[in-house]
Amino acid sequence: MDRARSRAPEGKAGLEGVVAGETSISYIDGLKGRLYYRGYTIEDVAKNCTFEEASYLLIKGRLPNSKELASFSAGLVRLRNLPDHIVSMMKTFTSKMSSMEALRTSVSALSSDDPDARISSIDDKLKTGLSVIAKMPTIVAYHHRIKNGLPIIRPDPKLGHAANFIYMLTGAAPDEETAKILDTDFVLHADHGFNASTFSVRVTVSTLSDVHSAFVTGISTLKGPLHGGAAMEVITMLKRISTPKNVEKYVLARLAAHDKIMGYGHRIYRTYDPRARILKATAGRLSKQKGNTRWMEMGEQLEKIMQEQKNIYPNVDFYSAIVYHSIGMPLELSSPIFAIGRSSGWLAHMIEQYTNNRLIRPIEQYTGELNLRFVPLKKRK
Ligand SMILES: CC(C)(COP(=O)(O)OP(=O)(O)OC[C@H]1O[C@@H](n2cnc3c(N)ncnc32)[C@H](O)[C@@H]1OP(=O)(O)O)[C@@H](O)C(=O)NCCC(=O)NCCS
What we know:
Blueprint: E1 2-3, E2 26-29, E3 34-37, E4 40-41, H1 42-48, H2 51-60, H3 66-78, H4 84-91, H5 99-110, H6 122-147, H7 161-170, H8 176-189, H9 196-206, H10 211-222, H11 230-241, H12 247-256, H13 274-290, H14 294-310, H15 316-326, H16 334-355, E5 369-370
Antiparallel strand pairs: 1-5, 2-3, 3-4
Bound molecules: coenzyme A.
């Protein structure tokens, strides 16, 4: 029996510190806590752009002029409706199906209407991708209403991407402030370098698989609690902690048990996540307006203890969870909302990968045995 002697890995576990490819879509400076979309600071993009405008920037590589933005936005509006057979299929989902599972399955099923042949051009792939981006809020809203025994509400072409999503969920167009809050949240989630779901999207595309498959890969990877599933866990945790005076005891017990505090920590940021800073300001403002600052007080204490104990800061999921709750978003929709925002980054990365593709296929460090003596089935004990 031999022990395998493969090369020592050059990076740490989890590909930490490994440069896996080039991109000009977004850049994270983890030491300074900065994030850029196509060279613009996230603060500028979040303050000045709608989701549609930020999507144009990410996907096309530059800011649109008014005419280009109007045409891009109108294109998304035209693509919002779901084919009847997708709605019929969603009605067959059992009540146990989560909203992320429904999103994953429905996006996959959409491919039957829009077959993305291997030979299709980059332009065709772009059109297919925009169709998925436009339909994702419709899928999430329809599934939520069907699951709760409510009639579906068709998209309103007069409303923007974020406002229309709230309208399809609730039946009422949101006020300007609420629509802007969700719109900014979509912008803040739209792209983040080679995060796990985006990287998985690029791996799928690198085999020259199709656009729908790449979205399904992204949704599937985002679903995990270490990635887009964290926001939901944050609310569960805050409810469990219940009051500011319980924070210290709770955190110390979790840390002693080597458990993770959800909404904290990041592979790249070694300081405050700039997206969390923007969302914290929004969460604080909403909490004051609603006269309930308990969760923000708990957040402050969590921040203090996590910095003292582990030098770890809140990530995008911590304060976004409080924001979603404050604007009345159902808890189960936290991850799908993240997915709706991230969809434009996924498409930007798909196009970048298709345009300059080479199969992504890293090497592994084999740790097993070699040249074992083969024992036939009949002779095995
Ligand atoms: C995001 C995350 C997966 C990054 O993981 P990572 O880069 O692999 O970091 P590690 O899990 O190796 O953690 C490194 C150290 O920080 C600690 N740590 C990281 N995140 C932590 C958290 N949320 N709570 C407590 N400790 C944490 C680890 O215990 C480890 O400590 P140690 O060196 O003393 O053992 C991780 O921070 C995490 O699980 N966070 C909670 C889930 C979450 O909020 N995800 C959303 C990300 S946007």
